[in-house]
Design goal:
Blueprint lengths: L2 H8 E7 L1 H4 L9 E6 L15 E3 L5 E5 H9 L3 H7 L3 E5 L1 H8 L1 H4 L3 H24 L4 H20 L10 H8 L5 H20 L9 H15 L2
Parallel strand pairs: 2-4
Antiparallel strand pairs: 1-2, 1-5, 3-4
Helix pairs in contact: 7-8, 8-9, 8-10
Length: 226
């Protein structure tokens, strides 16, 4: 089966992520589409397995096969968790509804490590830009701040929200370069400290509910084999 046919015919969940989902879209913002497809079980009986992900067919579109998506979500991959919590859903099947009902099962204290590691990688790129060009890429700085806010609030509340509209004006001012790097750097440092404080008393469980996710995956695979 052609990879694009998997996306076209077997997508169980499709959403918009990025600035449009975060409430930070501007006139020129892209529309980032993400999705999850369920490859028919008989495809796994062949020597050549179905792909774990597919890029396209639309511009800025990327989809994961359900098992790969669940694996990444159990590891608290920030992009995957944010995909699960997008407010802009474009396609949802009954299996997709079951996946969304499991959103809480994927959340755990692993998010502290995964979000922090991702943030550190993005921060290193910003620091390199400052050393090389005297200023960061302000759009990237804005998105790092948004990620830090999201991580802090997840650890404080045990719930993930991608809605950044309460901070929209401040974040867009960063994107426009209206705040100096010293001020942005201080904001990042403050959020990092607040994140560490939140992690110490987070209501999140130590581990995700892997058994519930695996039960869902097995049931879904079995039904797709019929």
């Amino acid at each position: 089966m052609h990879p694009e046919a998997l996306v076209r015919d077997h997508t169980i969940y499709a959403c918009v992520t990025g600035s449009r989902a975060f409430g930070l879209a501007t006139e020129g913002s892209d529309t980032d589409r993400r999705g999850v497809f369920l490859a028919p079980t008989p495809l796994f009986w062949r020597f050549e397995k179905p792909p774990t992900h597919v890029e396209g067919p639309l511009d800025e579109q990327f989809s994961w096969e359900l098992e790969r998506f669940c694996e990444l979500a159990l590891r608290a991959n920030p992009n995957i968790l944010e995909c699960l919590h997008s407010p802009i859903v474009e396609r949802l099947t009954p299996v997709g509804e079951e996946l969304l009902a499991l959103r809480g099962a994927f959340l755990s204290r692993h998010a502290h490590v995964s979000f922090s590691r991702y943030a550190a990688g993005q921060r290193a790129k910003l620091d390199q830009d400052v050393r090389t060009h005297g200023a960061p890429r302000w759009k990237h700085a804005m998105h790092l701040l948004r990620l830090l806010l999201s991580c802090r609030d997840l650890l404080r509340t045990g719930r993930l929200s991608v809605d950044a509209t309460p901070y929209r004006e401040q974040l867009l001012a960063v994107r426009r370069g209206e705040l100096g790097w010293a001020e942005v750097d201080a904001w990042m440092a403050r959020l990092s400290a607040e994140t560490e404080e939140a992690a110490a008393g987070t209501p999140l469980p130590a581990e995700p509910d892997r058994a519930a996710v695996e039960d869902f995956l097995v049931r879904t695979r079995r039904a797709a084999a019929l």
